[in-house]
Design brief:
Elements (H helix, E strand, L loop, with lengths): L1 H56 L2 H15 L2 H31 L5 H7 L5 H17 L3 H26 L5 H26 L13 H32 L2 H14 L4 H20 L2 H38 L6 H18 L2 H7 L3 H26 L1 H27 L10
Helix pairs in contact: 1-3, 1-5, 1-6, 1-7, 1-8, 1-9, 1-10, 1-11, 2-3, 2-5, 2-10, 3-5, 5-6, 5-7, 6-7, 8-9, 8-14, 8-15, 9-12, 9-15, 10-11, 11-12, 12-15, 13-14, 13-15, 14-15
Length: 426
């Protein structure tokens, strides 16, 4: 089991690292070409799209991974086929409602004219992102964690980079509008590739079965997952939105650069989560708690070992790295990076708390903690951002992240008996 996890971690983390490298390269190129003002506007548009996608994808990824894992174990292939078709239909319908709502919000002046002009181009991002998430969840549900990450991460970023190089050689004076179109095109091409992956990897016997649906059960399970996803996304994007609306676009750019740098620490945890998610659902359904503890203890150690050298590097050389990669005008992001790195290291030390709650049927309890965390985040930002700007947003994010992890790890332990946090000696 441990050897298997480690081998999968190497493959999964390699994808995460390569994806992050491509993200950093894209951010460097975009930041230098656009400048702080347009780069901040570009990130503000992406944040609005990310929040708008929530009603579409909310909870679907967790539901698909958990249900496909359990149904595969029970050999209920009719229902597997049913949930795949139902989820696609659900995503398309919800996308239509979300696009209409976003359009009306723009018409009634909720967004500035500049933002609304570019945001219209991003409407079609919504169903595309939803279907990419569905493809990833299906592949992971069938215990293909490495392949499941490719379409929605590495392939999207690689195509984006290629398109940027082509466009930049044609026209050097790019804008936020052009880069949004570029990202949409890359996502469409990745969706086509993802469809090929899913078609090739589905069990052949699945084609022999007819569809069976358990829609009421799936919808009931989806409700807490939906709320969890909404609150999580809102938490992650709140700082960007508040900075964009109440401070300035430059602050958004500084915060996004620092946040992206700090998220490098989380790559190990993310890679582990992709690997262990179907195993946690399967082992818990069988009542194999000791095996679960073994898997989780191994995974949190891997996450911390991955994060530790990155933490020291960014804390000591963060300012120099930002200046080298993004330029002197982005040096203000270095103080934000220090704060966010500390928060992310605590996140790695507490392990896969959210994943375990969701995969063990405790999603409603996880939701309550997320609501409290969101309230704390808004409260802290309302106090700190007016006086400290982007640095206040960084402090709010880090404090909320630590608070969430401590509480969630305690709830995991009381509900399942599992210790998620790093322990040198078992």
């Amino acid at each position: 089991m441990n050897t298997s996890i480690f081998k999968l971690f190497i493959g999964s983390s390699s994808i995460q690292v390569l994806n992050q490298i491509l993200l950093v390269l894209l951010s460097i190129f975009f930041a230098r070409v656009l400048g702080p003002e347009q780069f901040g506007l570009y990130n503000l548009i992406l944040s609005i799209i990310a929040v708008s996608v929530v009603p579409v994808i909310a909870g679907m990824q967790q539901l698909l991974i958990r249900e496909i894992s359990k149904l595969t174990e029970a050999k209920e292939f009719n229902y597997i086929k049913g949930i795949i078709y139902w989820s696609a239909y659900y995503l398309v319908v919800m996308s239509c409602f979300t696009i209409i709502t976003l359009y009306l919000s723009g018409k009634f002046g909720f967004f500035s004219e500049t933002v609304n002009e570019i945001l219209i181009l991003g409407y079609l991002f919504i169903p595309i992102k939803g279907l990419l998430i569905q493809q990833s969840a299906i592949l992971n549900g069938f215990r293909l964690p490495i392949l499941s990450q490719l379409p929605s991460t590495l392939i999207v970023q690689f195509i984006s980079l290629l398109l940027f190089v082509v466009i930049f050689n044609i026209e050097e004076n790019l804008s936020a509008k052009v880069l949004i179109i570029l990202q949409f095109t890359a996502s469409c091409l990745a969706l086509i590739i993802g469809y090929v992956f899913v078609s090739k990897c589905l069990p052949i016997k699945l084609r022999e079965y007819s569809h069976k649906y358990s829609i009421k059960k799936w919808q009931k399970s989806l409700i807490p997952f939906t709320a969890i996803t909404f609150v999580s996304t809102f938490n992650s994007e709140t700082a960007t939105l508040i900075l964009g609306f109440y401070v300035d676009n430059e602050s958004v750019g500084f915060y996004k650069i620092a946040l992206q740098g700090s998220l490098v620490l989380a790559l190990g945890l993310q890679a582990v989560n992709v690997i262990i998610a179907p195993d946690i659902a399967r082992l818990f359904a069988k009542g194999h708690i000791s095996s679960m503890q073994e898997v989780i203890s191994k995974s949190v150690k891997i996450s911390v070992l991955f994060a530790l050298p990155i933490t020291f590097t960014l804390l000591i050389f963060g300012s120099e790295i930002i200046i080298l990669l993004f330029g002197k005008e982005y040096e203000s992001a270095s103080s934000l990076l220090t704060v966010l790195v500390i928060g992310q290291f605590f996140n790695a030390c507490f392990g896969s708390v959210g994943l375990i709650m969701n995969m063990t049927g405790n999603e409603r309890k996880a939701l309550n903690i997320l609501f409290v965390s969101m309230s704390l985040s808004i409260f802290l930002m309302s106090i700190l951002i007016p006086d400290f700007g982007a640095l206040g947003a960084a402090y709010s994010t880090a404090i909320t992240l630590i608070f969430w992890n401590v509480w969630m790890s305690y709830r995991v332990y009381t509900e399942t008996g599992i210790k998620t946090w790093i322990r040198i000696f078992n």
